Amino acid sequence: MTSGQRLDRRQARSILEACASAPGVFLHHSGHTHRNKRTVLPQAGHVTLQEVGAAKDYPGGFVLLRVHTGGYALNYYRSNSEPAGEWSERGSRIAAGLWPQYAFGRSVRDRNSVTVRDLSGIAPLLPASGAVGGTG
């Protein structure tokens, strides 16, 4: 990693190449990145790169990812407790008060989206014979 939570070009290119060459990959979900951001890049257009903010950071919430046979939905929820609201208000002043624009994302779609995709053929990966937790 480089400063500012950015991958260097070689690392980023490697991840995009891996995604592009794996037709079964449809979502790269990264948590605790301190922002909510949804990206689809031309280099791997079948993959959504989804970042979700840390629950403790402004705006003080969490994301639920629901996967079903018809696709997946990502929904952001804010905590409504008084202590969480106070913490969130303090956190909004970070970065000279510009943090809310960064943390919320460019649009509502960065925090809430539905992706239609046929996932009906996906099955759980069975553990290898003799693996811990396997049925052996």
SSE ordering: HEEEEEHHE
How many runs of DSSP E, i.e. beta strands? Answer: 6
Helical run tally? 3
The value of Rg in angstroms is 18 Å
Arithmetic mean of pLDDT? 83
Q: The biggest beta sheet, please?
A: 3 strands, mixed
Structure class: alpha+beta
What is the CA–CA distance across the termini?
Answer: 40 Å
Q: Tell me roughly what share of residues is in helical segments.
A: 10-25%
Going across the biggest sheet, name each strand in turn: 1-3-2
Shape: globular
**Low-confidence sequence ranges:** none
Strand content: 15-25%
Outline of this structure?
With 136 residues, the chain is of the alpha+beta class.
Description:
There is one protein chain. Helix content is 21%, strand content 24%. It has 136 residues and is of the alpha+beta class. The chain has a 3-stranded mixed sheet, with no helix packed on it. Strands 4-5-6 form a 3-stranded antiparallel sheet, with no helix packed on it. 12% of the residues are buried.
Topology:
Blueprint: H1 9-20, E1 27-31, E2 37-39, E3 48-52, E4 61-68, E5 71-78, H2 82-91, H3 99-104, E6 113-116
Parallel strand pairs: 1-3
Antiparallel strand pairs: 2-3, 4-5, 5-6
